[in-house]
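Notes to self after the call with IL:
- keep both proteins in one doc
- input above output, always
- annotate only the second one for now

Protein 1:
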Amino acid sequence: MAAKRPFPKLSSIDELLLLSEQSQAPLEQSGGIQTVPINKIRMYKDHPFRLYDGERLADMVSSIENNGILVPVILRKVDVDEIGCDHEMLAGHNRMNAAQLLGLEQLPAIVKENLTNEEALMYVVETNVLQRSFSDMLPSEKAKVLSLRYSNMFSQGKRNDIIEELKMLENSQYNNETETSPLVGTKLRSDEKLGKEYGLSKNTVARLLRIDKLIPPLKNLLDESKLGLYPAVNLSYLDETEQQTITEVLSQNEYKVDMKKAELLRQYSGQLTNEKAARILSGESTRKPRSKSLPPFRLKQKVYAKYFNSDTKPAEVESIIDRALGLYFAKYPPLSNKSDN
């Protein structure tokens, strides 16, 4: 390993995890910085945050090409899977993606061992919260962050341990967080407090918590603005199998899911079949049947004035027209009657 040197002023959560002269001991307890082959690293399963693309990805590729990977990724040691990976990415998915585009084969990494799934997920979420503004996140990403902060899946003790590690290199940037980007590990007791910290109403928090219960394909539709927030909330009450049914119908057609359709789908929770979902999403189930009765008809005055004078009473006009039509259709049956013969 190259000689240790002071690092520049920190500006991101990844830099909080750099090995420095002042924070050598805590990282050495986790194995220090290692070099790990990329083909031994798997992506975090169901990673809730979108990877960089476009200009942002191009900038990262350019930076790595010119300067190398200066900030180590964070991995956890896992059992070897079916493709030979024995490490799982926690923080650094974008760096690994950019490195692969450049043809690099190894990454500098801090490797964590004996992490629980809950602790690993906390690393994934908290690093992304500190890297980006909450307001810039996609709906599904906001939903995941709020869901984890609202839940009791992490004990406060575990949370505090991780917080201390993430703050091992103090940076004033993270000591002046706004209410919409709270410090890691803030203890939350209610959705009202959670909403206040993120600048959201209680109802918005409740809706986003529901969004986290959607399956990934439906979350993608929401993130891509192909599914509205309110219809998405209604779909979140369906079980996973029913949500998958809706996804299949939508993938085979160009149906739109509006509020009315979503509410109707929710009403059929527990008994939603593929056929029923298709009828609802196509609009067929809510389409009014064609009326079999004739629409109202009014004979124009200039027509009946040719046959009746002004003294003729309406009832008499009606009676004469009725008899005249009877005689006409007796000789010339209606076309509908002819088709029945």
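Protein 2 (the one to annotate):
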Amino acid sequence: MGRVSDRSSTLAGILCGMAAGALWGLVFLAPELARAFSPLELTIGRYVSYGLISIILIAPRWRTLARRLRRREWLALAWLAVAGNTLYYILLSSAVQIGGIAMTSLVIGFLPVAVTIIGSRDRNAVSLSRLAPSLLLCAAGALCIGWQALALPATGTVGAQLTGLLCAIGALLSWTAFAVGNSRCLARLDHISAHDWSLLIGVVTGAQSLILIPVALVLDVPQHHAAAWAQFAAVSIGVALFASVVGNALWNRASRLLPLTLVGQMILFETLFALIYGFVWEQRWPTMLEAAAFGLVVLSLLSCFGAHRKPVGDRARAVA
């Protein structure tokens, strides 16, 4: 019975991770859909919307949840909101607008490697030796995308490309810290549901975004026509609802059901779907290198799933 339960939990976690990746892939398109607005404005629009939606959804349970939160949880919510949302999205949007989707996808594609390596240090985690084939395939897929990006004509100066790269690396580090910290918070907070934890992060992120509004006004007084504002609002609300509210809830569910070494590999679905959306947006088929990257990423996922399957001997001992 335990084996069936473990398998169903793993399958549910994988499906949640896959669905979260499909929704998160949309964030790579958002800076292109609302290019007239700066990364800071896009961040404010997305997370103010996320905060408002979270407040509405969590309001009926707010008093009960607030009593369960101690100072430690509020501090965790504050830094997770910065690392996984506010700072991450500013850096990601900047990287996409300055360096392009391909280069950004390449760097973010190394997220699974970083998270999985950190997760391998956890107690009872799958060893790095068993995860090595999956990590190498993941890195090879990311390098294929990088080679493709280098082969394309440069869209800006060397300085701009370097700035975009640094923003992408910053986004990588920021979200790696979030993925690890969030997974460990969920592991110890069994009295708070994964969905409520996601909404709490949304409330805190919305509050942080309000603080950024005066900063955005000082840096640049927005002067856009009505149609641009309507598009901005639609993109902000759409990304907040699907990527932040629904996507984050699915991700938290996956983080609770799967070990960190497998959760890290789930991030590959974001890269896969971001590339698919990019092809649709650009109205083209993938190149040979991009197709190879797809294949390598899929093989990386399959290899990681295989590494997390218990050997026959372990299953026999579990049954006994």
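Annotation: The chain has one domain: 2-319. Residues 2-319 form one domain.
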